[in-house]
Amino acid sequence: MKDFRLWGLKKSPWVFHVAAASCNNCDIEILDVLTPRFDVERFGIVLVGSPRHADALLVTGVLNRKSLPRVLRVYEQTPKPCLVIGVGTCTCSKHMFSSSYNAVGPYDKYLPVDVYIPGCPPKPEAIILGVVKALSKL
Amino acid sequence: MSLPELIFSILIFPGFLFTAVIGLLLTWVDRKVTARVQMRVGPPWYQPFADFFKLLLKETMVPEGAAKTVFLLAPMLGVIAMPIVAVMLFYMNINPYASFVGDLIVILYLFALPPLGIIIGGSASKNPLSAVGASREMTQYFSYELPFLAAILVPIIKTGSVKIGDIVLYQELHRSVLYSLSGVIATITALICIQAKLGYVPFDIPEAEQEIMAGPLLEYSGASLAMFRLTRAMMLFLLPLFVITLFWGGFANLWAIPKFILIIVLIILAKNTNPRLRIDQALKFFWLGLGIFAIIGLILAVLRL
User: NADH:ubiquinone oxidoreductase-like 20kDa subunit domain: from which residue to which, for each copy (chain A) (predicted)?
Assistant: First the structure.
């Protein structure tokens, strides 16, 4: 039964896109991944409109005091098991806002992040590789 | 029919298991053809099964303040109704003499249960977007049901019976309802209404992803979402069969397979080449456009054309 569940999760990870105050470049790259050119539906990856349907959260942007409670709330609303994938350098660190009073640091202080995908913004190929790495961790 | 036979036919063939497997395979056909239309490769054949089992084994959440029992039971309405429709359709086609008076009406009401489940579930989930979706689903249901019933009246007038068995027998003895002017009009009407019943693109207004996210299904997760998707998959299998039964000579012969494939491909291509209507446009289209079209068909049927 556990193998079966794992198989289902690996073969159909539905992603929900959490844009937590990013500059939109990572968001555009994520949309790029979902276009026919890269065709991630081959691997069963589908973008869904509600965190309740999601298996993986793609989070983007520097985490700040305003967006932190929202991101946590979206994470709590996602049925478990769910992966958290940080897209972009902003998620790994505070990036260019390192001295800002408002930035509250990388995501894994607050959320169990599975994979970070560095890059500003990361290429679509890198995002796909990141998702594959997150899935092979399962 | 003895009791074990009945249980077998409802649970395995042609009931729940058979309908579910074929329906899920058909959703794969849908996704694959969509991918090919968009010049993509598309998902592998086991994709709908992976989606289904993943959802089934995931956590099911109930939103705070929702009516819990109703919220969890609403998805079951469609899943219970569809195997019964499958059993009735298959038995009436294989043995038309087993038909009882009014089975067509029973099937029509059973087909009304999946949208009812969506409306109840959407209203019970205490989310404004779900409520909007449920109200749209309700409006859309009332709009497409009128031309659909008018279309179904055509074979009833032609054969003078509300028994599916009689309609199938009549078509075997004479000719299919489709091969007449009123029959063509009724079949076109029924096919467009099927598109709306399935919630496919020109009429996916209740679930409009870009406007109200997933509409009534917004708060559903895990097993209950899987039930909704399974219902839709079963409907994708049963509604074309229903149209073939009523308008195109039943499906107790091999000719039914190319007919079935043709209808499925038409549905998928219509889905891929149309933009979404607004709810008021859909209502106008179904009542004024298609409704009048269907009533012309009815008049022609009365005139024996």
Answer: 23-133
